Amino acid sequence: MSSPRRPLVAGNWKMNKTGPDARAYCERLVALVAADGVTAEVAICPPFTALESVAFALAGTPILTAAQAVHEAESGAHTGEVSATMIAATGALGTLVGHSERRAAGETDAQVAARVRAALDHGLFVIMCVGESLELRDANETLGWLSSQVAAALAHVQTDDVERLAIAYEPIWAIGTGRTATQEQAQEACAHVRAEASKVVDGAAVRILYGGSVTPANAAELMAQPDVDGALVGGASLDPESFAAIIRATA
Ligand code: PGA
Predict the structure, then answer these.
(1) Confidence of residue 12 (pLDDT cuts 50, 70, 90)
(2) 0.90 cut: is pTM over it?
(3) Whose CA, among 26, 125, 143, 159, lies 20 to 30 Å from 90?
(4) Active-site residue 170, yes or no?
C-alpha cells in the first residue's frame, strides 16, 4: 500500500553553530541534496541566533528552516524567549515544540499545547516531540505515557492543522546516547502515537518521526517501519555529509 505521507527528515542542531558556520553548512548540504535528487522533505533547526542566516541561505532551495522552540505569547516580558511572529519574520517556516531537553528545563504539557497552537496560528509548521524516560520504559509505562503526552499537546489542535503538524517520537534514553531504539520499539511507539493523534487529526495523514541516535548506519531500517515517516536527527545532523546520508536512507 502506498503511503500518502511524504518522509520528513529534520536536523536539530541544538546549541551548535554560529551564523557563519551555518552558511557554510547550508551551501554544502544544498549541493549534496541536489546531487541526490532527494524526494523527502528536509528541514534544518538551527539555534535562534543562526535562524535568519539559515533561512536566507536556504531560501529558494527545497530545504526548509525551522526554530527549535517558540513561546506562546505574541510579545512582552518573557526574557530569552521568542514568539512565533519573530520566527516567521526570519523567513523560517516551522518550529520544534516540546523537545525533551526543553521539557526537562521546565516546559509543561500546557505550555507545549499553547505553543503548538501559537505556531500553527502564525502559519508555521510544527514538529511536536514526545518520548519516555528509561524509568518509564523499564516500568512498562511507555505507551500510557505517550498517550497522555500526545493528548495534552494536541489539546488545541484541529482537524485541518494536520498538513502542518508532525510528531516526533524520541525516547529520552536514546537521545545523544548512541543507544537507538530497535526497529520494533520505534514501530510500536510510532504506531501508538499515530493512534492517539488520530483521535484529533487524520491518522493516515499525520507524519510520525523517530528521533534518538539516528545515524547513516541505522536510518534505513528505522525508516522502513510502516509507521515511521521520517527522522528527527541531532548529533548526526551537524555534519552535512552524514545528514545527507540519512536523508538518502529515507528514499
Ligand atoms: P540525537 O538527538 O540524534 O543526537 O540523539 C535527537 C534529538 O534530540 O532530536
Answers:
(1) very high
(2) yes
(3) 159
(4) yes
